[in-house]
Amino acid sequence: MSCKRVPSPIGWALVLAMLSLAALSGMADMAAFAQKLASDPFTADRLRMVETQIFARGIEEENVLEAMRSVPRHLFVPEGLRDQAYVDFPQRIGSGQTISQPYMVALMTALLNLEGGERILEIGTGSGYQAAVLSKMGAIVYTIEIREELGKQARETLDRLEHRNIHYRIGDGYQGWPEEAPFDAIVVTAAPPEIPERLVEQLEVGGRLVIPVGRYFQDLMVVTKRKDGVTKQRVAAVRFVPMVTDVE
Ligand code: SAH
User: Fold this and answer.
1) Mutate to test the pocket of ligand 1, among 95, 97, 199 (most ligand atoms within 8 A of CB)
2) CA–CA gap between residue 170 and residue 147 (Å, rounded)
C-alpha cells in the first residue's frame, strides 16, 4: 500500500510563508529593476549591448560582462551623442579621439586576465570609459592621457561616478609611470608603431601588456613578461588612433 505524505498544518503554514517570501523578494527584485530603469533610461540598451555584441561573440568572463553591464557608457560620450553610446561602433569623444567599440573594450579587458586587486597602467585615458570598467573589476588603475582637456574631462566624469581607485596623470604614456612600476598589467588604447620597451620594463614578471601595434595596419598584441624575456601573441587586426609623442 502506498502511503502519500501530506504536510501537517504547520508544514502548510511554512510552505505558504516561503511562497509569499519568494513572491515578495521577486517583487523587490522587480521593484529594484524598475527603479534602475527609471533612473537610467539606458539600462536596457546596455544589457542588450553586453548580450548581443560581447557575450554572443565569445567573451564569457563574468567579471568583464558584469562590469560592462554596470558602467553607464552614455555618460562617457558627448551629450549630443548619448543615444548612440551603445551601438556596435567606436564613438567620437572630441579632440579627434574616439572611445573604442564596446566589444574592443571587452576583448582587451578579458585579455588582461583580471581577478581583482591588480595594479594596472592604462595609456590613453580618453573618455575614461576603459578606466571605469577596470576600476569596476576591482583593479587599482593608473591612467595617463597626453591631451589635457580629455584627461580633465575624464576625471570629472569618473569622480562624479565615485570611482575612487583611479590615479590620473597628464603626460606622455611612452614614459609609463616609473614611480608606480611594476604593474600587474598594462593596457594601451592608442597604437604605437612598435611595442614601447619602456612599458615592457614596467611590467611585473608574469604580467601582461595588451596593445595595438602598427601604423595603418595594426595588430592587437598580448605581450607576456617572463623571467628571461617576453612572449608575444597576435590576437586580431584592429584600428586605433595613433599613440603620439606630442600634441599641438
Ligand atoms: N581608453 C579610452 C580610449 C581612448 S582613445 C576610452 O576608454 O575612452 C586613445 C587616447 O590615447 C586618446 O585620448 C589620445 O589622446 C591618447 N594618447 C595618444 N597618445 C598618447 C600618449 N603618448 N600618451 C598618453 N595618451 C595618449
Assistant:
1) 97
2) 7
Distance 128 CA to ligand 1 centre (A): 10
What is the phi/psi pair of residue 76, to 5°? -100, 0
Question: Which residue puts its alpha carbon closest to atom 20 of ligand 1?
Answer: 243
- 105 CA to middle of ligand 1, Å? 13
Return the residue whose CA atom lies nearest to atom 11 of ligand 1: 124
Domains of the chain: 62-238 (3.40.50.150)
Q: How many helices (H) and strands (E) does the chain have?
A: 7, 9
Contacts with 80 (C-beta within 8 Å, 6 or more apart), sequence order: none
pLDDT of 67-124, one tens digit each?
999 999 999 999 999 999 999 999 999 999 999 999 999 999 999 999 999 999 999 9
Which one from 20, 100, 127, 135 is the annotated catalytic residue? 100
Expressed in angstroms and rounded, the spacing between residue 120 Cα and the centre of ligand 1 is 15
Torsion, CA 114, CA 47, CA 87, CA 76, rounded to 10: -60
Active site (annotated) includes residue 100: yes
Please state, in angstroms and rounded to a whole number, the distance separating the CA atoms of residues 169 and 149: 12
Task: Quote the pTM value.
Answer: 0.87
pLDDT in tens, 202-236: 999 999 999 999 999 999 999 999 999 999 999 99
Helix (H, G, I), strand (E, B) or coil at 194: coil
